[in-house]
Design a protein that fits this description.
Chain lengths: 377, 377
């Protein structure tokens, strides 16, 4: 295990993957969920960058976090901001699209193109909403496997994911052991902590107590936006750190006001903006579904030990924890690797300095990027 | 400065102060607030325990936290649970009512008897609601000073407060320097952090986006209970610690359910209960007022230095920080004392182990209680 301190030197990103068009795979067969329910067909939206080589050995699977999606690099038509991980993925970048074929699917249960609660249920002609089966991390991975089968990919060079994406890549190395060469786990956990469950429950309560919630049976244009925005504002604080917030906003005032509901501090303005922009791109039922998938994720299980889950793993694993991450703190990442090492697996752990909190896995520093590059090499 | 580790031995509390009746002092003169506004009269509700001695030298002032009140010891008629700090205050207890005359007022702007937003504005015959002037920690202290004048108390043996109460006792030692002999600051801060402002803003947003909010002009029986409950659920997490939550609830299930809005984990049930009981005893406008009083509290000021605020302080000061408190973390308490020591003041700092987070200042351990007792002696 190594401890690596980053300097603050920004990483100069080479060019990006350019104009990208999302793809859809419509799977016309039933998908069975961990809870026994099934849907009769589903669509999975995804993006790919780079080219699959002749022996199909250069695929990298990217698994996104709670609020992420399949659009992690390049630009869609008309966009001015690239995908969410464009600093990491592209030609010459740590996840190098001139060498690797990168696939990023939108998660099952999502709201960005893959079938989820807001999709039309072909049996009723209406959105699934609360009739959508409860999704687990295992279900997400099962749907991704179906996509990879369709793409003719039988071997993944590496599965890479941060946060909820980290849970998915762990599930991959357990459920499809033989298929995964390398697993890169970033700012994740093998078991959602009590505090994280607690925060998610506040967010869920804000949603289902919104008058527009209507027991989940809302019109797409008239959802529980207020509750969802509050959930996001709160969650956003947990993605950052006290020190990061101090550096960025301190106690700077937006305006002088005597009105108790006005924005007063800059950090308040920032949070409200985060809440508002989130509701424009996210569905409340998906938010409930994904937070429950996180909360019920527990590789320790009844025996309170990771060794049972990890016993058959064959992949090389690197986990990276970030010092200021208090949502999925370094020790939870370290424990994953310690358990793998006890089983004699090829695993290593790195801990990086950063003041960005949980969101550090999206940061740009030379040390972090060199580490990812070297691990994939 | 000393670092003290507590063992886990529970403190056996002696008898309590028994049956107590709250008192009211109606001040029939105007009170001017820091923001220039005024109210024409106000009531301050308080409790006292013990007896004021002949030379009026044994008074201890207790300042309560955000959700606290004047009822900190003994029992009201019919109560089965005592006041919120009954383990600390009573005959033979660290704040020993057989020696000291203890006064605990409900804060100005509160909702437990002291004039606040839910009180009737004599000029309109209706509740002040949003017309109540914005309150600062300084305003709270000014109102307390008026009460002490009324009670004939010109010297305070000690002012004691945790969290928002800690801010008040610091304000006391600054604004009424000559009057205060000792100051005991528990789990507090000289300046609200950006992260704490951020969490408070989420709570405020939950309240003012509740349909019952009505711009603060709600009927007492039909307030924004949903928003207030959500605010409380979230805030409650910040009063605890991840480790404490793990110990208490872990991932224990309340019930098996597929419904995404049902209570599933024990911690969810606990939080919902916290939210619901809070709305039965607290007013949303007071919540907004008090969180803003916290957020705008800043003894560092423009010069980003505590020395200016503390230069005239004459009291003996002890601050206690708690290791697992991430809301008002140990370092923020330590900084208060460091600044006082640089000015040559009689100040000391102790840091205690506990897994109870911010709420640790309400804990019962022998070391903590011995420390408080010795400081007051």
């Amino acid at each position: 295990m190594s401890i690596i301190q980053t300097d603050k030197e920004p990483w100069k990103a080479p060019d990006n993957v350019g104009h990208v068009i999302p793809c859809d795979y419509e799977h016309k067969k039933p998908l069975k969920f961990d809870n026994g329910q099934a849907i009769q067909e589903f669509n999975i939206r995804y993006e790919t960058y780079g080219k699959l080589n002749k022996d199909h050995s250069n695929a990298i699977l990217i698994c996104h976090a709670l609020s992420g999606d399949h659009h992690c690099a390049g630009y869609h038509e008309g966009e001015t901001k690239p995908g969410w991980w464009d600093n990491m993925i592209g030609p010459g970048k740590p996840i190098d699209t001139s060498r690797f074929y990168v696939i990023c699917p939108n998660c099952l249960g999502g709201c960005q193109g893959t079938t989820g609660p807001s999709s039309i249920n072909p049996q009723t002609g209406k959105p699934y909403n609360q009739d959508f089966p409860r999704v687990t991390i295992g279900d997400m991975v099962r749907a991704q496997k179906i996509l990879l089968d369709h793409l003719g990919i039988t071997h993944i060079h590496a599965a890479v994911g941060g946060s909820m994406g980290g849970m998915q890549v762990m599930q991959w190395m357990i459920d499809y052991t033989e298929m995964v060469g390398r697993v890169l786990i970033l700012a994740s956990t093998a078991r959602q902590s009590t505090q994280s469950i607690a925060f998610n429950e506040v967010g869920r309560s804000a949603i289902h107590q919104d008058p527009n919630w209507n027991k989940g049976d809302y019109d797409p244009d008239k959802g529980p936006d207020t509750g969802l925005a509050i959930a996001r504002m709160m969650a956003h604080i947990t993605y950052l750190s006290n020190r990061g917030l101090e550096s960025k906003f301190g106690r700077d005032r937006k305006q002088k006001t005597q009105n108790l509901t006005d924005v007063e501090f800059e950090v308040e303005s920032y949070l409200r903006h985060q809440g508002q922009t989130f509701v424009n791109r996210f569905d409340a039922n998906t938010y409930l579904l994904f937070t429950k998938a996180l909360d019920t994720f527990d590789l320790y299980g009844q025996k309170d030990d990771l060794r049972h889950a990890f016993q058959n793993v064959t992949a090389r694993i690197l986990a990276i924890g970030f010092i200021s991450d208090w949502l999925f703190p370094p020790e939870e990442n370290r424990e994953i690797i310690q358990s793998l090492l006890k089983l004699g697996k090829n695993a290593s752990y790195a801990e990086l300095e950063s003041e960005l909190g949980h969101d550090s896995f999206l940061l740009e520093t030379k040390e972090y990027f060199d580490l990812v590059r070297a691990f994939l090499d």
